[in-house]
Amino acid sequence: MSVGNRFTVPDGARAPADYAMLAQALGCRGVRAEDAAGLEAALAAARAGGATTVIHCPTADGDVPDSGAFWDLGVPEIAHEPEVRRRITAARDRRRAARRLR
C-alpha cells in the first residue's frame, strides 16, 4: 500500500518513477538532481530559464516530522483559528482511531 507520496509496490519496495522524464513528457523541463550541488545548479538554471521546470531530487526515506496537521506532509505553520484547530484535531483523532496515524 502506498502512503502519502511514498509510492510503493505490493512488496513494499519503492515504485520506480523518473519524474524528470514524466515532466518532459508533459512539456516541462525535467531535471534530476543527485546531490546538493546538483540541486543548486538545477535551481539556478530553473530561475534563469523561462520554462516550467520540475526538479526531481531524491531524498533519504524516513518519517516526516510531525507537523500537527491532519495530512502527512510538512507544513510551514499551524492554524490558530479555533474552528480550524477543532477540525484538524477531529481529523487526527479519526486517523488515530483507524490506526493510520502514529
Describe it for me?
By secondary structure, the protein is mostly helical. It is built from three helices and two strands, in the order H-E-H-E-H. The chain has a two-stranded parallel sheet. Strand 1, helix 2 and strand 2 form a beta-alpha-beta unit. The longest helix is centred in the C-terminal third of the chain and has 16 residues, at 82-97. It starts with 18 loop residues before the first helix and ends in a 5-residue tail after the last helix. The model has no long low-confidence stretch (mean pLDDT 79).
Question: How would you summarize the topology of this molecule?
Answer:
Blueprint: H1 19-25, E1 29-32, H2 36-48, E2 53-56, H3 82-97
Parallel strand pairs: 1-2
Summarize the structure.
With 102 residues, the chain is mainly alpha-helical. The chain has helices at 19-25, 36-48, 82-97, and strands spanning 29-32, 53-56.
- The overall strand count is 2
- Count of all domains: 2
Q: State the end-to-end distance.
A: 16 Å
Mean pLDDT: 79
Indicate the structural class.
Answer: mainly alpha
Spatial order of strands in the largest sheet: 1-2
Write the element-wise H/E pattern from the N-terminal end onward: HEHEH
Largest sheet: 2 strands, parallel
How many whole angstroms does the radius of gyration measure? 18 Å
Low-confidence stretches: none
Describe the global form: extended
Number of helices: 3
Strand content: 5-15%
Helix content: 25-40%
Subunit arrangement of the protein? single chain
